[in-house]
Design goal:
Layout (H helix, E strand, L loop, with lengths): L1 H13 L8 E4 L3 H14 L7 E4 L5 H10 L3 E4 L1 H10 L9 E4 L2 H6 L3 H8 L7 E4 L6 H10 L26
Parallel strand pairs: 1-3, 1-4, 2-3, 4-5
C-alpha cells in the first residue's frame, strides 16, 4: 500500500512529460529496491514510463545499459546511486521528485552522508517525500534541512502501540 501511495501520484505527474530521470526513490536494501521497482513497473505498465533499479551486488554495466534504454523513475540504494553519479552514468538535473523510503532504517544503516550527497545534486525545485516508521532526531533533522515546511502525516500517537494490538508475555 505504501508504494502505491507515493508511486501512483508520481507516475501520474510524470505521464506526458519529457523522457529522462525525473523521480528517484531511495531505499535501504536491494530486496526493498527490487520490490518497490516491481510494484512501480506494474503500475506504470501502460504509461510508457520506464522504471529502473540501482543496487549493489550485480554488474554495474547491466544497470548502465538499462538506463541507456530509457529511464524515468529510478529506485536505488544510496551507495550504488552514488557510484553511477560519479561515473557519469546518470544526472540528477531533471529530477522532480525524491522519495526517501524507510528513512529511519537508512539512518540506522549509516546512509546519512550518502543521502546528503545525493540530495545536494538534485535541483532545488523538487518535491521531497519521506517515509519512516519512527521519527528519531536524525530523521527530524533531515526533514528540516531538505524538506522545509514539510507537512507531517502521522498515523496513531507517536511512540504508542495501536490500541487494537494485544501484548502478552509467556514465560518458559
Amino acid at each position: 500500500g505504501k508504494t502505491a501511495a507515493f508511486g501512483l501520484p508520481i507516475l501520474n505527474k510524470l505521464i506526458g512529460g519529457e523522457p529522462g530521470l525525473r523521480a528517484v526513490i531511495l531505499v535501504p536494501t536491494r530486496e526493498l529496491c527490487v520490490q518497490v521497482a516491481e510494484n512501480l513497473r506494474n503500475y506504470a505498465s501502460h504509461t510508457g514510463l520506464n522504471v529502473c533499479t540501482a543496487f549493489g551486488g550485480i554488474d554495474i554495466g547491466i544497470q548502465t545499459s538499462a538506463f541507456k534504454r530509457g529511464l524515468d523513475v529510478l529506485v536505488a540504494c544510496p551507495g550504488r546511486l552514488i557510484d553511477h553519479l560519479e561515473r557519469g552514468n546518470l544526472t540528477m538535473t531533471d529530477v522532480e521528485v525524491v522519495v526517501l523510503d524507510e528513512a529511519d532504517r537508512m539512518l540506522d544503516m549509516g546512509f546519512m552522508p550518502q543521502i546528503r550527497s545525493i540530495l545536494v545534486r538534485c535541483p532545488d525545485e523538487r518535491q521531497n517525500l519521506l517515509f519512516s516508521a519512527t521519527m528519531p532526531p536524525e530523521v527530524d533533522e533531515l526533514c528540516k534541512r531538505f524538506v522545509p515546511g514539510a507537512a507531517r502525516v502521522q498515523v496513531g500517537r507517536r511512540s504508542a502501540a495501536a490500541s487494537t494490538s494485544q501484548h502478552r508475555f509467556v514465560g518458559i
